[in-house]
C-alpha cells in the first residue's frame, strides 16, 4: 500500500509528464550537440511531410527529400503552424521523412512514404509553397481533450490509426490539410504516444468526468485494480476525497482519479468505473491523550468498519504509544463473501507501538478478515513491535459453518496478546495466529473456541490431508522466501517481502500460557466443532514455552497413540528440541469419543459403535495403503459399579451385549476411549476421551400380534427407515410380521398390509393403534355402475395420479372397504379404451350423467360414444378446449361414427378437408353438402384427410383449434378456447363464425346435441 509520506519521485510525478521530459531530452540533446539533423536546417512541419510525400509520388520519384524540405520550409504559413508535439520533436514520429538534407534521396523518401492508397482523397498535385486556409474554423483548439473515433482508419499521411481507436489525448497543434479542405491535428496521449496527422473527421469531443476534484467518493464493492495494476480489493467500500483527475484510455473508463483517504492511504490511478458516490461518512474518532476511540457503527458494513480501524492504525503509526479503544457492542468486520486467501479482501495492516483494546467489543467477522504485521527489515525484530491486542471478542457471523479470521506476522517483536476470545473463526486448514519469525512475545488468557465444524463427523483420518486436521490456532514458524509458511499471502500486499525475507528467521522466545482451547457447543451442550491446538509443522523454531493451557475435545489429540512423533496432538513440535518447555497442560475429552448406539436384538440390549484407531501414513510396495494401528486403544464401558473393557477391531468397530447381570432396568451406560501410549513432549497430560452417555432401550413385549387389524395413527410421521407415513394416516390394515427395534419411543416395528395391496414394512409401534373399524354405510356404487371421475380428483388411495383421468367415464368392476380420508370404500373402474384405475376412493367418483334422459339413442350409438369420450376429455383438459363441443362436432360430422369418412380406414370424425397435416396418412375424395351465401345447400366432391386411427383424428382436430390451419398467419380458431369463449354455447357460435362449417345453423345444432345428450357434464372444471 502507498502512504502519503512516500517521497519517490516516480511515485509523485504523473506518468505522462515523465514521458514528456524523457522524449523531449531524447530529441533536444542531439540537436544541441550537433548530431542528427543539421543545426541550420528548418524542421519540417507535419503538413509538409504529407505534402512532400504527395509531390514525390506525383513527380515519378524524381524529387528528393531535400527538394521537398527546401520547398516547404520556406513557407512562412506552414512554419508558423509547426509546433512541437508531446515528445518534443516536430517531425512525424511515425515517418522517416524528416532526415538530413545531405543524407536523403528519392529512394529513402519512397521507402518511408505511405502507399498512395492510404493518402488523403485529394490527388491533385500541389506545388505551392503555402496552404490554403479552410472556409470554416477548426472544430478543436490546442489544449482540447479529444478522442480518436471508433471508425478511424489512418492519419492523413497513411499511418495506421486502428490501434488507437477510442484513445483519449490532448491537441498539441493544428494545421491545415495541404489542399486547404480541412484540418489535421497533432494529438498526444498521456502515456507518451502521439499521432501527428489526425484528420478532424476522426476526432470527437470528450465527455466530462463524472466526479469532481474535492468530491467524496467510495471505492466500489467490485473494484479489482488501479489502472497501473495496484490492488484495490483491500479498499473496497473505503471513502476518500478526489485530489486530481486525468483522462484515461482503456477498460470501461475515460477518466482516472487520485484518491486520498482519511487514514493516510491513497490510490493514485482509480478508474472511474470503480468509483461510486460516497454512501456513508466515516465517523471522526475521539482522541484523548494517548487514547484513540474508534467510533464504529453497528450499522456499518465490515469493510466500512475496516476503514475506521485502518485509519486508527495509521494514526498510531504516526503517534507511537497510541491506545486504540474499540467501543462496546457488536460490529461487523472484514470482507463479505467466501474465504479466499488468493484475495486481499478484508486486509488490515497493523502498526508498531500500538495497543488495540476492546471494551466488551464483539467483532463479528462477515466473510474474511486478515490482519497483517509486515516486515520492515532483514532482522527478526524488524517488523511490527510493541504490539498489544486485548479484550477483543472476535466471533463468526456464521456460527454453523464458521468465518475466517487470521492475524499474520512477518517478523515482529514484543507482542502481547491476552484476554481475547475467538469463536468459530478458525476455519479448516487455517490458523488464528500465523507467526513467522516472531520474537519475545506472549499469548495468554485467551479463548480459542471451535475449529473446522465441517470436520466434526470425520470417521477416519487420511494423512494426505493431515494439515486440515492439525492446523493450529497459534502456529509458530520461520519466516523466509519459500512462501510456504504464509501460503504466499504476504507477497501479495508487500512489494518488499522478498527483500525483507532474504534470511530465514525462526520464531523465538514465545510463551503460550493459560489459554483455553475449547469446542463450540450448542445450547444443549452438544459439540458443533471440536477445538484445535498450538505448534509448528513446517519449519524449526527457537525457545518455546507452552504451559498451563487447557485443551477440551481437541480434533487432534491422540497423535502419540496412533503416530508417535508427528503432528496429531493439541501441542505438537518437531521432536529433538532442548529448548521446548511443555508442562502442566491439561487435555480433556481426547478425540475421538466412541460413536455408539444401542438396540434390542431378541430382547437383549446390544451396543455397536466405532472409534478411530488408525492413521494412513504411507503406501506399501504393493500399492495398498499403509495404516498405523494403535494396539493400546480400548473402549471402557461403565455402569454404576460395573465395567467392561472392549478391544475394537482393526477398523475401529466394536460390539457388545449389556450383561443381563447389570439389570433389565438399567437406563444407560457410559463409554470412553483411552490408551496407555505416552507422548514424550507432554507425558504428564491426561489422555482419554470424554464420557459418552448412552441410553439403553427397555426390553418389552410387542403390543400387537400378527394378524391383528390396526390403524395408522393421525400423527404418524415416518417409518423407521424414513419412508413417509403421512399419506397413510388413518389407513386400516393387518399386521403380517414384526421385529424388535429401538426407534424413538418404540421397541417394535411392524409390517402392515392394506386391502388395496399396499404395504408399510417398518411401522414403529408408537404409530399404530388397534382397530375394529367397519364401514358405517353401504357403498355408493355397485359393480356395473357407470361412473365419472370427478374434476378435482388427485390420486388413488395407493398414490397413483388421477389428474389425467378427471371427467373420464367408466364402469365399476370391483368394490372394497377402505378407510382413507373422507371415504370408506375404494373402487376399480375400467374404461372403454381398456385402461383402468383400481383404487379410486369413493369421494373421487360420481354417477355418470352422460346420455341420462336422452331419447332415441341406440346401444350402438352409446357404445360408440363411450369409446371416444375419454379421448375427447383428455384432449380438452390438456388444450383449453370444451369436450362437449368436440364430441358434438364428432356426432354431427360423422353421423355417430357411421359415415364413410368416419369409418375405417378413413377414421375422420370431424370432416377435416385434406391439408398438410402431420397426423394424416392420406386423403379420400367424397361427396359433401355445402351451403351457399344464402344458406341453400348443394353437393360437391372434396378431398378429406384420412388417419391411421381415431386418436389421430382427435390430434388433428386439436391441432387446428390450437394452432390454426396450415399456411395461415394467425389462428382463426383461437377464440374457441375455453379461457376465451367462457361457455360451450359461445364456443359453438365462435367456431361457426370462424368458418368451420358453411351450414348457417351449425352453432344451434352443436348446442342442441350438447344439451340433448348431457355432453356438458364432461366440461366440469
Automatic annotation (TrEMBL):
Residues 59-82, 89-113 have a biased composition (Low complexity). Residues 849-1019 form the Mannosyl-glycoprotein endo-beta-N-acetylglucosamidase-like domain. One of its GO terms (molecular function) is amidase activity. SUPFAM superfamilies: Pectin lyase-like. Residues 51-138 are annotated as: Disordered. Keywords: Hydrolase, Membrane, Transmembrane, Transmembrane helix. InterPro entries: Glycosyl_Hydrolase_73, MGlyc_endo_b_GlcNAc-like_dom, Pectin_lyase_fold/virulence. Residues 114-133 have a biased composition (Polar residues). Belongs to the glycosyl hydrolase 73 family. This is N-acetylmuramidase. It comes from Oenococcus kitaharae DSM 17330.
